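Figure caption, in words: inputs first, then the predicted bound structure.
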Amino acid sequence: MAPANAEPSVDLRLQERAAALAPELTSLRRDLHRHPELAFEEKETSARIARELSALDLEIRTGVAKTGIVARIRGGGTGGGVRRTVALRADMDALPTPDRKKHVDYRSEVDGACHACGHDGHVAMAVGAARLLAERKADLPGDVVLLFQPAEEGIGGAEPMIAEGALDGVDFILGQHMLPSIAAGEVGVSRGPALAAVDEFLLTIHGRGGHGAYPHLTVDAIVVAAQVITALQTVVSRSVDPLDAAVLSIGMVKGGYNFNVIADKVELRGTVRTLSRALRPEMSKRIATIVRGITEAFGARFDLEYIQRYPATINHDSGVELFLGEAQKALGNDKVHLTAPSMGAEDFAYYLEKIPGAFWWIGCRKDDAEDPGYGLHHPTFDLDERCLPVGAHLLAQSALTYLTHGADR
Ligand SMILES: [Zn+2]
Ligand SMILES: [Zn+2]
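Bound structure (zinc ion present):
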């Protein structure tokens, strides 16, 4: 049950204070943008964050999961007697991609590394939220734990952060991600699944090579691979309920030596994405069945390595309702969108498998004709920095409301 509280849910002072932080958040984001660091190498980024936080008198643990930070704001308030702890998470890593923006002075100064997924902005917003909440530390009716996480891109920093105690004593977690399909000043959230589970497979088909003129003496691995590729297209189109989303994409085919040589081996690599927990294992079973049947029919052999990466990021209803309420009050109903799930993936999923919470989208579309901000992971991706105080405020406000009322209203 929520304790009675006479304070209005959206604190106008908090929103104004967030707006006043805009220049500092922009400057921090640009500094990080100039100095991107790849997964598990976020040393300077982490040191910079620790410096920002040390001014706020928090309990800071550095070196968590190599470069991560866990910082606690220990609230001094009593509230309604129920003490809760909420975590706010930001990822810190950049992508191994060049920065091809033309008209800005904060381009990456590191060859082959760029904050093309907006994690620089995520850090700035979380630092902003830390500042907003630390300013009212004496009255906070619970604790706020800030998680600055390494290696979201591909390798995965959330799992080692959890293994090293990031969620110890934490009741609820909130996180956010830039989304350039939504304008700055607007936000989105998905009920239920927000992002897909991502798996990867590496399939090697072994045939028997030979001369291109004598196919009857060979087992042509390219022909077998072609049948496998075609048949795998039926996994989603024929075996999965059309209302249950899944993707199977083969992104790499490697095999063969010359125009007149029959290949003995072909390697295929692909990605499999699913939204429902039940469908995920079915996909790998179906793939294995098809590969086994086709290779056997042609007298070939196969090795199939199936690697489960991130699970689906599934929002908890309590987190979504909490966020929707705060966002609608702060921005107006027309600026808050219920978004369809994305078939992209996020290792925020691991946190939501442990404790309730929500992950939402911060609109960041940059309408700049000279330097249009293309999508996430594009070498020209950029964000409209007006989104930074919005994200800082919503993170802080949602945390404050959770600490005051819980999330079961
Ligand atoms: Zn990304
Ligand atoms: Zn990202």
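Residues 1-8 have pLDDT under 50 and may be disordered.
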